[in-house]
Specification:
The complex is a heterodimer of chains A (283) and B (254).
Chain A (H helix, E strand, L loop, with lengths): L1 H32 L7 H19 L3 H23 L4 H21 L1 H4 L14 H19 L2 H11 L1 H5 L5 H27 L9 H14 L4 H17 L7 H15 L4 H13 L1
Helix pairs in contact in A: 1-6, 1-9, 1-10, 1-11, 2-3, 2-4, 2-9, 3-9, 6-9, 10-11
Chain B lengths: L1 E10 L2 E11 L4 E5 L6 H8 L7 E6 L2 E2 L5 H6 L2 E3 L12 H9 L7 H5 L5 H17 L15 H14 L4 E5 L7 H16 L3 E5 L3 H7 L2 E6 L2 E6 L1 H6 L1 H8 L8
Parallel strand pairs in B: 3-8, 3-9, 6-7, 7-8
Antiparallel strand pairs in B: 1-2, 1-4, 4-5, 9-10
Chain lengths: 283, 254
């Protein structure tokens, strides 16, 4: 088992990040699947990360409880901002949620007494481990797969295709959207809380515009026709920079080019692309 | 069954519906006709809650509908189809119907999370969905995405989807548009069967042979006002209706 130890000491952060990124990809999947273009998830991630880290740092809250509370804090915020903002759709919702993310980042930046401001939070207890990440990913994936194949999943697809027609079929479209938004926020909050407990240090700039776009990219690259798409997208976006380590300074360039090629050849995401290739080779 | 009282709708300074009263009887097929732009579809949009009326009231089975969100109105028993078909294009015909059956079942989100927890509900739902599809002659197309269906088939799928909400009143917005003569004949029979099964039906249609052949009563709208109401025979001979459709013939034999 010696190789396992050395593997773990080298790659533990990568494995754990893959897990939290899959959670983030799932968090954007659920909003995209019902047609909501929300980029608030980096903000929810920050709320989860800071809430949980402050709890374990100052009050000695056990990790599991801190994780749950982090997710709940993000969900509560989503409930609060979801009611007014989900009246918007398309790019207007994207703008509003983008602004929300910035507000969260700037608030954290300025609440120095509590959050440490730009210096961030240091010395977060290293409680987070493989087990918590694995349980979270498995549970989230299981729940999402069940939902996707139930009436809930069908209703979400219907909303993404024609909101008015769905409403006129007797479905409470606003409630469905709010549900997806809040669940996505809880998941992003959980991912943030987990992430904070294996990175030792968090600062507001980790949760800015770039992160928001990265999360969106994971959802879009993976595809929103199935939760498995989010697993693919989250893993790929985490692993790709590592796989391209040998490329030196051309790494970001090639990384970007690969993502563009994927979207050009499989516009509905990797999962759909893979499935149609499989079907063709089988048939 | 459905009662409109002094219903008006303004779009800015433009009055599209002007102080309309109407009572839709519980039985019989009711026709709503009038030239393009008369305001027929707007009436449907007001009834289903997509647009708020500027004034007046809408009552269904003695209950006021004004101010209710569209999904609540559907749940009270009013379903509709659309002039410009609005199916869920990437979903199969069966899924389209299943969505509309959705919240009526005893199907709960929590139940869906348990292994096998929803299989029975799901199966019985699929069975009723198939029955509805076979009723409109789409059994063979159940697993085809709605976008792949022909125009006539899409119209019939919309009808099946509306029926899946288990309505008491069905509003059909140009159900025969784009259908050939045989399809129209079939549709007429289907609508008559629905009426016989106890459903009230209001339809907007431009095909006069269709309307006259199927409706017990017809109301004619022009520039947001009723110009006539009565049986097909009365409407056919009504001078104002002829004028609205053919223009004022005052250069003739006077």
């Amino acid at each position: 088992m010696e190789w396992l130890d050395s593997f773990w000491s080298t790659y533990s952060t990568l494995v754990l990040s893959t897990g939290t990124n899959v959670l983030l990809a799932l968090s954007i999947y659920i909003t995209l699947a019902c047609g909501l273009l929300s980029v608030a998830n980096a903000g929810f991630m920050a709320i989860g990360a800071y809430s949980a880290a402050l709890l374990t740092l100052h009050t000695g809250t056990p990790l599991t409880l801190a994780l749950i509370l982090g997710a709940i804090a993000a969900a509560m915020m989503a409930l609060l901002i979801g009611v007014p903002t989900l009246r918007l759709s398309g790019v207007y919702l994207a703008m509003a949620t983008l602004a929300f993310g910035e507000v969260v980042r700037i608030l954290i930046l300025n609440a120095e007494d509590l959050t440490g401001g730009a210096l961030g939070l240091n010395g977060i207890p290293q409680l987070g481990g493989l087990l918590e990440v694995m349980i979270s990913v498995t549970l989230a994936l299981y729940i999402f797969l069940r939902l996707a194949h139930s009436q809930v999943g069908r209703s979400m697809t219907a909303i993404s295709q024609d909101e008015i027609a769905t409403e006129l079929m007797g479905l409470n479209v606003r409630a469905y959207k709010l549900f997806c938004f809040v669940v996505g926020a809880a998941l992003a909050g959980l991912a943030g809380a987990l992430n904070a407990h294996f990175t030792f240090f968090i600062s507001p700039n980790e949760y800015g515009f770039e992160r928001a776009v990265e999360i969106l990219a994971m959802g879009v690259i993976g595809g929103v026709s199935s939760p498995w798409g989010a697993v693919l997208g989250g893993s790929l976006i985490t692993a790709l920079p590592e796989l391209l380590r040998g490329m030196g300074r051309y790494r970001p360039l090639i990384n970007g080019a690969i993502l563009i090629i994927i979207i050009l050849y499989s516009p509905k995401g990797l999962w759909d692309g893979l499935r149609s290739v499989l079907r063709r080779t089988r048939g | 069954m459905l009662k409109l009282s002094s219903l008006s709708k303004d779009f800015g300074a433009l009055r599209v519906l002007d102080n309309l009263d109407l009572a839709i009887p519980t039985r019989g097929i009711f026709g709503l006709i009038g030239p393009n732009g008369a305001g027929k579809t707007t009436i449907f949009n007001l009834i289903t809650g997509l647009l708020p009326p500027s004034s007046g009231s809408i009552e269904f089975l003695g209950e006021r509908l004004n101010g209710l969100p569209p999904f609540m109105i559907t749940r009270r028993g009013i379903a509709r189809t659309f002039q410009n078909i609005r199916l869920f294009k990437d979903m199969t015909a069966e899924e389209n119907v299943l969505v509309a059956m959705g919240d009526l079942s005893k199907y709960h989100t929590l139940k869906a999370l348990l292994p096998g927890g929803y299989r029975d509900d799901e199966n019985s739902q699929r069975k009723s969905a198939r029955e509805l599809l076979s009723r409109v002659g789409l059994s063979a197309k159940a697993h085809q995405p709605a976008a792949f269906l022909s125009y006539g088939e899409q119209r019939r799928l919309e009808l099946a989807r509306a029926l899946a909400t288990r309505p008491k009143l069905l509003l059909l917005d140009e159900p025969a548009a784009g259908m050939n003569a045989a399809e129209k004949q079939q549709l007429m029979e289907e609508i008559e069967k629905l009426e016989a099964s106890g459903l009230s039906i209001v339809l907007i249609e431009h095909d006069m042979r269709f309307v006259m052949g199927i409706c017990a009563e017809i109301a004619v709208l022009n520039f947001g006002r009723w110009i006539a109401q009565g049986s097909p025979t009365e409407i056919r001979a009504h001078p104002k209706v002829i004028e609205a459709y053919l223009g004022n013939n005052d250069t003739g034999d006077t």
